[in-house]
Specification:
Layout (H helix, E strand, L loop, with lengths): L4 H7 L4 E6 L4 H8 L5 E5 L7 H11 L5 E5 L5 H9 L4 E4 L5 H11 L14 H5 L3 H8 L1 E6 L2 H5 L1 H5 L6 E4 L1 H7 L11 H17 L2 E6 L2 H10 L3 E4 L2 H17 L17
Parallel strand pairs: 1-2, 1-8, 2-3, 3-4, 4-5, 5-6, 6-7, 7-8
Helix pairs in contact: 2-3, 4-5
């Protein structure tokens, strides 16, 4: 079976630089794959990517050695198994809040007796190899998202789930769950303490920690802290930022706004 380079990088103590795909295009995915990412994750939860688009995106990624992964829409075995059968080498599962949900997710990623994944890796054998079903359980990554107050409360129980390879912090939902605003790259004490707490829990249980970030500066900071998978924005946002930067550069600096004239006061 084709080895999972993310697993190999983790084993050697390296941090994985992960890209995020939200544009439903095989060609766009192929272009991203040729930019040097360690892995690329197709997002099926948010945005406009459907299953058929994901398959084409995996095919684009497979022109390189980049590891294909998917974030499924929900903790539903049907979604997990279909993405794996399409060739995903890692599954990121949203909103895992307790041990029972973590066990349900991990079980869907593994064949019996380690789990209950149904046999039918139609494209996965083309990508992974003829011995896929014999070796998939040792290569496929099961990564649960920690993104709620409830999940943090149950952190130890979630992280002690047999077969769980990693967690992935969803900073926006995590922040909302604690009654704060959405967004990424939080540096205030309360939210940073949560990010560090989750990381310490992962170290305690031997689980790898990943997180979504909005800048290279923040990604480097959490990597330095010990996170082992960092995602930078997504393809559509990267395109928008690059395009805006070039257009603004061509337009030049905007003229200063004229100061508003003081209104004459009426005399009565």
């Amino acid at each position: 079976m084709r080895p999972n380079n993310v697993r190999a990088m983790w084993k050697s103590g390296k941090c994985v630089v992960n890209g995020w795909l939200s544009i439903p295009s095989g060609f766009a995915a192929e272009v991203m794959a040729h930019q040097g990412w360690d892995s690329l994750t197709v997002d099926l939860q948010h945005g406009i990517v459907d299953y058929q688009a994901m398959v084409g995106m995996f095919q684009g990624i497979s022109t390189t050695s980049v590891v294909p992964m998917a974030r499924v829409p929900w903790n539903d075995p049907a979604h997990v198994m279909k993405a794996l059968d399409a060739g995903a080498y890692g599954i990121i599962c949203p909103m895992v809040n307790n041990r029972e949900e973590a066990e349900k997710f991990v079980g869907a990623c593994r064949y019996a007796p380690r789990g209950y994944r149904s046999s039918g890796p139609i494209r996965a054998t083309l990508y992974g190899g003829a011995d896929y079903q014999l070796k998939a359980d040792d290569e496929i990554l099961a990564i649960a998202m920690i993104e709620t107050k409830e999940a943090v409360k149950n952190l130890d129980k979630i992280l002690s789930t047999p077969g769980l390879d990693g967690i992935y912090v969803g900073p926006s939902d995590l922040s909302i769950s604690y009654g704060m605003g959405p967004g990424m790259d939080h540096t205030d004490e309360k939210r940073w303490d949560l990010i560090v707490k989750i990381l310490k829990g992962c170290r305690k249980h031997g689980v790898h920690a990943g997180i979504h970030t909005g800048s290279t500066a923040y990604a480097k900071r959490v990597r330095q802290e010990g996170y082992q998978l960092v995602t930078l924005l997504n393809d559509s946002r990267i395109m928008a930022v690059a395009a805006k930067t070039m257009v603004d550069d061509m337009r030049g600096p905007k003229p200063a706004e004229p100061k508003a004239k003081a209104k004459a006061q009426s005399v009565y």
